[in-house]
Amino acid sequence: MHETSVVSRAIPALKQPIHVTSPLLPDIQNLHVRLREVWEKKWVTNNGEQHRQLEEALKNYLEIDEISLFNNGTLALVLGIKTLELTGEVITTPFTFPATVQALDWNGLTPIFCDIEKDSWNIDAYKIESLITDKTSAILAVHVFGNPCNVVKIQEIAEKYHLKVIYDGAHAFGTKINNKPISRYGDMTMLSFHATKLFNTIEGGALIFNDPALIEKVNSLKNFGLVSPEEVKFSGLNAKMNEIQASVGLEVLKIIDEERTKRDHIRRTYENELDEVPGIRIVTMHHKESSSYQYFVIEINENEFGRSRDWVHEEFKNYNVFTRRYFTPLCSDFAWYSHLSSAHKKNLPQAYKTVSETLSMPFYGGLEKEDVIRICEILKSFYSKVVQ
Ligand code: T4K
């Protein structure tokens, strides 16, 4: 294979560094007013007024029945898994952020890695069944980059084998499936409200679910297992969201629709600019009614584009553009899983291919259209015709 062109860097670098995301921050004056109320009440954590308001506001916004707020998404997932009393093995995806499988580790569970789909990068539901053993208690699937999993097939398998289903929806705030909130599928869904997420409370997260019978246990587990001031029913943790986080969330919620509209424009600009570039595939699904608008991710086929994903990622830095290689390394590559046969490379061909080809592009409402166009021009200038 021979490359016929050399990058000339004819396009000037961006003036300011452009990162993969930038936090959506509320108006500081409005936040100040809300924080003043908190200060006056002197009730700063442990189920305060802002916390209660945020739970109600999110129930309305997401059209969901049950929610429990947490101080981050990872602890929400750890305690969601504990709530469901999972045991033994849990079938999951290797193509995710470390937190997903670390939540299994903290519950003493063994992940069984299942390969992913070529088109969505989510767990391949058709490969789950062959991994089920008499130790399997659940499926932990991730709505990767906010694209929903094959929830119908996963549910079918779960019912057939009496498995629980828990979704890591860290990227899926506001994602809908067939016009229904994602929490309608599976036993529980975790959301992350980290600063890098569309909806954020700086650090934060939530569990959302349908079964009201779970709420007492979930709320107790995040509060040391207490069910009353002097009764400890479960072995819990401290994972509560405080009043400052909840205040930020209430103010961010006011501006989130505007942010989604801005991201929709950016998405269209990217799609228009990159539509016909050989070797570039856009996978992140963006339909205004159903998308989380969390990430904009492309796949780079080296044979067709003439440059590898890693080359593009490095070269972009010379232009002040800082993309990310989520989720490198695959979780199945962690040293402590090397004894698992499901973690072997030969069992995860699609995951290994995907993890070497995907690139998260800058994507946040504050990005100027001209900058998006410039980023696309830079990317197009990398294209290198390949003579086989
Ligand atoms: N499950 C999945 C599938 C997840 O993706 C995550 C988290 C979790 C579970 C766990 O949820 P949490 O416990 O976090 O709620 C970031 C986030 O820290 C992490 O929340 C997120 N996923 C992951 C995909 O991305 P890093 O290591 O990429 O963060 P960092 O600090 O490099 O930030 C990325 C870019 O964002 C920076 O280059 C610039 C920008 N940034 C970041 C921060 C923190 C800002 O402009 N301002 C900021 O304050 O992990």
Automatic annotation (TrEMBL):
<dbReference type="GO" id="GO:0030170">
    <property type="term" value="F:pyridoxal phosphate binding"/>
</dbReference>
<feature type="active site" description="Proton acceptor">
    <location>
        <position position="197"/>
    </location>
</feature>
<dbReference type="InterPro" id="IPR015421">
    <property type="entry name" value="PyrdxlP-dep_Trfase_major"/>
</dbReference>
<dbReference type="GO" id="GO:0008483">
    <property type="term" value="F:transaminase activity"/>
</dbReference>
<comment type="similarity">
    <text>Belongs to the DegT/DnrJ/EryC1 family.</text>
</comment>
<feature type="modified residue" description="N6-(pyridoxal phosphate)lysine">
    <location>
        <position position="197"/>
    </location>
</feature>
<keyword id="KW-0663">Pyridoxal phosphate</keyword>
<protein>
    <submittedName>
        <fullName>DegT/DnrJ/EryC1/StrS family aminotransferase</fullName>
    </submittedName>
</protein>
<dbReference type="InterPro" id="IPR015424">
    <property type="entry name" value="PyrdxlP-dep_Trfase"/>
</dbReference>
<dbReference type="InterPro" id="IPR000653">
    <property type="entry name" value="DegT/StrS_aminotransferase"/>
</dbReference>
<dbReference type="Pfam" id="PF01041">
    <property type="entry name" value="DegT_DnrJ_EryC1"/>
</dbReference>
<keyword id="KW-0032">Aminotransferase</keyword>
<keyword id="KW-0808">Transferase</keyword>
<dbReference type="GO" id="GO:0000271">
    <property type="term" value="P:polysaccharide biosynthetic process"/>
</dbReference>
